[in-house]
Amino acid sequence: MNATEGKKLVVLGAGESGVGAALLAKVKGYDVLVSDGGVLKPVYKEKLEKAGIRYEEGAHSMEEILRADEVVKSPGIPEKAEIMQAIRAKGISVISEIDLASRYTKAQSIGITGTNGKTTTTLLTYHLLKEAGFNVGLAGNVGYSFAEQVIADEHDWYVLELSSFQLDDTHDYTPTVAVLLNITPDHLDRYDYSLEKYAQSKLRLTRNLDSSSYFVYNADDEVIQREYQSVFVDTNDLPFSLQTQPHVRCAALYRSESVLRLEVPEVQDEPEEVDISRSPLIGQHNRQNLAAAILAARVAGVTVEQIEAALPTFRNADHRLQPVGDIGGVRFINDSKATNVEAAWFALDGVKAPIVWIAGGTDKGNDYTTLQPLAEQKVKALICLGVDNTKLRTAFESKVPQLEETQSVVEAVRRAQELAAPGDVVLLSPACASFDLFKNYEDRGRQFAQAVESLTLK
């Protein structure tokens, strides 16, 4: 008899990961119930109905849920939710979709986490493997369910973007290569406002690593350096850095702006050099993302020649330092994904030309101090695009030659073009959430790109 036959599995949350988990569990013989406190999207209802999976929306059947042998919790559900507190009190095993999927595949994987840069690094790593001819799948936080792909399980490798919320309920998942890009304060409301707890959540990615695995991490990140010391893992450490580290032997280190030196004795006899000059990614943070992705690809078996050949054809996800137009020698860059101060810092630092900066939105308790020196050096004008720009005004009024306010993205783009000279960059890098004027950061980025496009048509 199948070990899972008749075992009751409840999936909480019916988004991409939850529905994928339900479909895989059904195939593997579980008795599955999907329960969502909100409304299911029609596409997900259709998938569940077609597979004959029971689901409920708008409420949780507490009594039935508490009879589960195991619960798969979607990443967005906080521990303080009433249903989660009841499940924990009953002592029911709670896992993530990532754990469930990893039970049913023998494929190798590269798991990538970090506060900033996850999506870029995941997409780039996937691109490097795919272009080198690997049979590789892309999954996790990039919007594709790992569990649903494991039903067919046609890949030799998976590249997974993993958020801290996904890692919180991951117990058995063991990547071949674990990648940790950086740790900075974010989502602290889910971690009792403790940076240490948030960092330990990220470091769960390393918990099952052994001597056959690799851990690629950012040696320039002080929080990683500090917190990783408390994690006892016997694995192959592959730190990367933008500059020489006195106490760390780096596996990837920049020799110059465009040359990354690799020293990975596990896969190569001699040090190797990778020319990254043809990569379309800009900014210091992207040099870190590049180092991480190249290291991960290299230990997976991609050669330096294959990496160099693939770099120029990489296209990043939208809204991440994405060029969206050139009008009269002025470049327009959409970095709407920069919803926190650190991401905006990377953008301002990465752009070498004079900047007309469009920023603002829903402030998340931001401290703009770190952006002030960059604004003084590089920003010709700041256009505040938000309902309440008081904090931005206070922080930057004395730092930039010109500051204006608007609640219209079309007006912001029009004024930016008027204020910019040939050779300048108009940069949308808000440092804030988007919910005051837009549905989300994608909506903000799309409206910005459309406004630029309508200017080019004039």
From TrEMBL:
<dbReference type="InterPro" id="IPR005762">
    <property type="entry name" value="MurD"/>
</dbReference>
<keyword id="KW-0547">Nucleotide-binding</keyword>
<dbReference type="InterPro" id="IPR036565">
    <property type="entry name" value="Mur-like_cat_sf"/>
</dbReference>
<comment type="similarity">
    <text>Belongs to the MurCDEF family.</text>
</comment>
<keyword id="KW-0963">Cytoplasm</keyword>
<feature type="domain" description="Mur ligase central">
    <location>
        <begin position="112"/>
        <end position="297"/>
    </location>
</feature>
<keyword id="KW-0436">Ligase</keyword>
<dbReference type="GO" id="GO:0016874">
    <property type="term" value="F:ligase activity"/>
</dbReference>
<feature type="binding site">
    <location>
        <begin position="114"/>
        <end position="120"/>
    </location>
    <ligand>
        <name>ATP</name>
    </ligand>
</feature>
<dbReference type="InterPro" id="IPR018109">
    <property type="entry name" value="Folylpolyglutamate_synth_CS"/>
</dbReference>
<dbReference type="Pfam" id="PF21799">
    <property type="entry name" value="MurD-like_N"/>
</dbReference>
<comment type="pathway">
    <text>Cell wall biogenesis; peptidoglycan biosynthesis.</text>
</comment>
<keyword id="KW-0961">Cell wall biogenesis/degradation</keyword>
<dbReference type="InterPro" id="IPR013221">
    <property type="entry name" value="Mur_ligase_cen"/>
</dbReference>
<dbReference type="Pfam" id="PF08245">
    <property type="entry name" value="Mur_ligase_M"/>
</dbReference>
<keyword id="KW-0067">ATP-binding</keyword>
<feature type="domain" description="Mur ligase C-terminal">
    <location>
        <begin position="319"/>
        <end position="432"/>
    </location>
</feature>
<dbReference type="Pfam" id="PF02875">
    <property type="entry name" value="Mur_ligase_C"/>
</dbReference>
<keyword id="KW-0131">Cell cycle</keyword>
<dbReference type="InterPro" id="IPR036615">
    <property type="entry name" value="Mur_ligase_C_dom_sf"/>
</dbReference>
<comment type="function">
    <text>Cell wall formation. Catalyzes the addition of glutamate to the nucleotide precursor UDP-N-acetylmuramoyl-L-alanine (UMA).</text>
</comment>
<keyword id="KW-0132">Cell division</keyword>
<keyword id="KW-0573">Peptidoglycan synthesis</keyword>
<dbReference type="InterPro" id="IPR004101">
    <property type="entry name" value="Mur_ligase_C"/>
</dbReference>
<protein>
    <recommendedName>
        <fullName>UDP-N-acetylmuramoylalanine--D-glutamate ligase</fullName>
        <ecNumber>6.3.2.9</ecNumber>
    </recommendedName>
</protein>
<keyword id="KW-0133">Cell shape</keyword>
